[in-house]
Amino acid sequence: MFLIHVTAAYSNAVLVAIMPYVSDFAKKIDLPIPTPITASQVANFNVSPWEGETGGGLWLTNHYFFGFDHGDVSSFSSPTNWFNNTNDNWDDSEYFKRYLGKDNMTTKEAIDLTRRFFYKLGYRSEDFDVRSPPTRVEGPVNSKRLGHLPYCRMEWDSPHSQIQHLLGLNYNIQFDVDMQRKQIVGMNLSSRRFWRPDPEITVVPDLETNYRSAGVFGQMGLVQSRIPYIHMTSAYSNATLIATLPYIADFAKKLTLQVPQPVTSNQVLLYVPPHYLHDGFNCAVVLANHHWFSFVAGYVCGYGSPDNWFEEGATRTNWTYFDDKSCMTTNEAVEFARNSIRQLGYKQEDIHMDKPPSEFENALDGENKRYAYSQIDWDSPEDVQGTTNEYHLEFDINMQKKQIVSVTLTGKEFMRPLPQTDVTPELESDYRKRIQSHTNVPVLNLNTGKPPNIPLKKE
Predict the structure, then answer these.
(1) How far is CA 141 from CA 4, 86, 96, 146, 335, in A?
(2) Residue pLDDT, tens place only, 238-266
(3) Residue 236 to residues 51, 282, 298, 425, 459: CA-CA distances in angstroms?
(4) Are residues 306 and 164 in the same domain?
(5) Do residues 169 and 262 share a domain?
(6) 297 and 172 within one domain
(7) Does this model's pTM top 0.70?
(8) DSSP 207
(9) Which secondary structure element, helix H or strand E, spans residue 256, and what is its range?
């Protein structure tokens, strides 16, 4: 991801572009703000300094705050929102008097209010499960010293799922409620599922050429990467995918995974190609059946499937319970993992898999019900931990089906020669120099630092 050179012209252009969105948001939810919002109402605007991220933080003169990114208002906060001040002035009882009061609604009524608010923004209950109870509820707060703070915070999180995370489908929804005035006073929506098309900006920014790892950016924690970034093209993306798929197919075949053979690009739902030179050909593939693979340094370093209670337990209710008559024993599961590493072509004694596992975990829920899954880890000996020879292995096993459902392999022992492609990548810096030397047309924001949506070449 690249820092841009922020100018007053660019900042003003972004502000002008997003103010209609903020005005529409404020009007839609009946905030006490005159609309349409004009420049005279703006107290401060911090534009996003990253290429491909049109937005920033907007403060109005009445102290309302709005966060805008990826085409929509993603957050807002009222000046009366106690949650914005919980870390300030705890010793100043006079300061907190403005937030003290009584509850004029129940927690259930506050939850219903947030649901209506969410639907009013145009989101559907079938897309985000806010019909269920919130994942977390915080407040209201009783303080013996200060009094009663009639505010509560509701959060809805998507079910934990590594697959949903890889596909960008997970989400977090947060609302803050003033229970005395019966008002929503804060919101934060976090997910790629909330993204909308960015507004058009009349000013195209240049990249920030004075890269810094200290100074103002260092203080903000925004350190510009110095790793050579690849200019992404469909040709390069397709070439690296085609070069990677045989490794994935071989891995799946050796472990008898539930993956159709041969593995072709027609089966690929999502592909994240290597983005940097000298990063070991680091890429990821999610297949249409939601089996996924991570690849780096010439080998498949990670694998996961929908049939893995440890990563996907919240996505299903029909997980198989453990039955000692139909499931593997602990010793059988350990030997099954050892045989899997041999099938992949590694010697178990080289990675101490001939020794007892570092950890063995059975799949247990909060009620201590045991499911037919186990997780087995082997770690490098203590004398090599913290060195370049450190390694880690993890196998998740369906003990009834006798099937590997997840694998993690980390360490030099697993590395192999990198795949070869017939496409030589071009550095982003070289691409920009080449384009700028041949045309006066502004360079488009093609690299956003996120997985690109690049069409795959069908076989």
Answers:
(1) 43, 11, 12, 10, 53
(2) 999 999 999 999 999 999 999 999 999 99
(3) 21, 14, 17, 6, 16
(4) no
(5) no
(6) no
(7) yes
(8) B
(9) none
